[in-house]
Amino acid sequence: MKLHRLSVHNFRPIKSLPLSFEDGLGRVRPITVLAGPNGCGKTSTLFSIVQALRGPMGYRTDDVPEPCDDDIHRAGGAGGLVSRPTSVSVKLELEFEEVERTAIPQVFIDTKDIRSPKDPPLSPIPDGRVTVKWKYPPDRKPDGSLWPTWYSAYDPYEALPWFWGRRYAIMGWRKRRLSDPLLLEHIGGLLLFPQDRSLMTRVVGENRETQDRDEESVVSSERGPSEKDVFSPAYALDSAERRKPRTSLWDILAYLGQYANQRDVPLPDSLNWEKRVKESFARICAPKEYLGFKYPVNSPIGAPWLREGDFTYPLDKAASGEQVVLDYVTRLTYPSPINHGLVLIDEPELHLHPGWVRQLYRALPLIGSGNQYILTTHSAEMRQMAAEDNALVDLGELNGGA
Q1: pLDDT tens-digit profile of 350-390?
Q2: What does the H/E/C string look like for 72-112?
Q3: Least CB-packed of 99, 124, 326, 357 within 10 Å?
Q4: DSSP tag of 210
């Protein structure tokens, strides 16, 4: 799924903002960087995309609050406090790629017996082009009641089921209904990475107790022992552990490690998601490495472990830059690799050294296949690289426009 154009009116600080994500030949750029000062509408632009798509895609996130009257841009009067009749409007011009237009109909066939019989049929969209319009406050239905705040209108109207393709592919994969398990990787999704100002909660989790480690078994010298000396084979998680909800990065990495290693027959590379995380992390953070979810000798308490040279350390002792990069590459992989998706990242440079900002910018288009990345930034390094690639959108000063 590709976003060609976006138009935002009266949303938060944005009075009117038209954006194109195409290059000079009309092709969607793999990466677009929105740069500008505080208050110019960078984060609001990402939020407007999520607000327009959260309804049709069923995208759940607590990082974008439900819309309210304070989100309406009201100009004039005493500092904008005087209310004027107006409303928020967001328009997206999207395209389902050819690979998606092949995979989604097959998913609908494979999941026929587990979908609701009330679902509308999947009607053909010859060119894959769809327009989505979101408005707040919402319009009224014919009976006078209001549409839900997440409701979006579609053109053509029959396009709505196409947005359910990835949801049904995940459902079919979990219930083993897909004729080809890799169908899921051919259908794009939506993913937002917010500003990670509460990074440790996102990485480690809110309620994880501090776990004492046997320092003699983990660190035997100032530089630390080798991986071979420290780690024993992975500890098998019991069924109760496997059923726990996996929301923090720590828990996801534990699952991916168990999924990859607790098998009689090794996973093929196409399904070894832990290996994909390791490779993606190395593209950005080399010579640092992600080793996987490991268990110290004679201990059932595991952790995600990293290494630099011969020094090994667990995730909660890693630098914030390492944690945020590992978070990016993991959530682009779990619960399935994101390909042909729309990925929004708000100020990725918050925890990164300028060198890693450059490496992240270069590595993102290589993570997954056919993804479209939209980033916001204050980083001079990222701004310069985007300008050199003709991928920069300068939102400028907040002066009654954007």
Answers
A1: 888 888 999 999 999 999 899 999 999 998 899 999 999 99
A2: ECCCCCCCCCCCCCCCEEEEEEEECCHHHHHHHHHHHHHCC
A3: 124
A4: P
Closest CA to 91 of 167, 11, 27: 11
Q: What is the dihedral of CA 222, 228, 230, 235, to 10 degrees?
A: 160
Which of 315, 307, 334 shows the shortest CA–CA distance to 223? 307
CB 336 within 8 A of CB 271: no
Contact 39, 376 (CB under 8 A): no
Contact of 35 with 386, CB cutoff 8 Å: yes
- CA 325 – CA 342 distance, rounded (Å): 18
Between strands 14-20 and 342-346, the pairing is unpaired
Instruction: Tell me how far CA of residue 10 lies from CA of 13, 71, 83, 91, in angstroms.
Output: 7, 8, 12, 12
Enumerate the CATH 3.40.50 domain ranges in the chain, comma separated.
1-189+339-402
User: What is the C-alpha to C-alpha distance for residues 256 and 274, in angstroms, rounded to an integer?
Assistant: 5
Amino acid at 230: V
**DSSP bridge partners of 146:** 140
Measured CA to CA, the distance from residue 190 to residue 205 in angstroms comes to 23
Distance (Å, whole) CA 349 – CA 353: 7
| Chain segment 310-336, per-residue pLDDT in tens | 999 999 999 989 999 999 999 998 878
Q: How far is CA 301 from CA 139, 312, 330, in A?
A: 54, 16, 21
> What's the CA gap between 57 and 243, in Å, rounded?
25
Contact by Cβ (8 Å): 110, 145: no
